[in-house]
């Protein structure tokens, strides 16, 4: 037998593997930045304001709907509970269309934090009449409709 070693001598690493690993990490970093920029929400407040004519038209439509609701409840065609629900929906929809604030899907707490104070007060005043144990009474619709007119008319 010869004096040949029975093991292999250590091999040196090629420079290509660390460079390839560095490029892979750089590619992952670039991919993460691209995904982050593509999925960001657009900045708020960059939308163009609604033309005054459109706001006036939406206001008239909302005020007309408030009148219809009040008359339907007063005539007994609609329960007062549903009337308050419709008032809330009308006011929330008007604010959402005019301002872009997602008032139609916001809770009362969200409205207090992000919305105008008067809107939050009006919506909160409807809650006991909409979701209370007892059916609200017909005379209560007058105060609710008046508050809705104040919010819509003052917008």
Characterize the structure shown.
This protein is mostly helical and 155 residues long. It has a domain at 53-153. It is 66% helix and 0% strand. The chain has helices at residues 16-38, 52-74, 80-99, 108-114, 117-131, 140-153. Helix 3 (80-99) runs antiparallel to helix 5, helix 3 runs parallel beside helix 6 and helix 5 (117-131) packs antiparallel against helix 6. 21% of the residues are buried. The model has no long low-confidence stretch (mean pLDDT 83). Keywords: Membrane, Transmembrane, Transmembrane helix. The chain crosses the membrane at residues 15-38.
Mean pLDDT: 83
First-residue to last-residue Cα separation = 102 Å
Instruction: Indicate the overall shape.
Output: elongated
Q: Determine the fraction of residues in helical runs and give it as a percent range.
A: 55-70%
Largest sheet: none
> How many strand units?
0
Strand content: under 5%
Low-confidence stretches: none
Q: How many DSSP helices?
A: 6
Helix/strand-derived class?
mainly alpha
SSE string? HHHHHH
* Radius of gyration, whole Å: 32 Å
Transmembrane segments: 15-38
Keywords: Membrane, Transmembrane, Transmembrane helix
List the helices and strands and how they pair.
Layout: H1 16-38, H2 52-74, H3 80-99, H4 108-114, H5 117-131, H6 140-153
Short description:
The chain has 155 residues and is mostly helical. It has a domain at 53-153. The protein has helices at 16-38, 52-74, 80-99, 108-114, 117-131, 140-153.
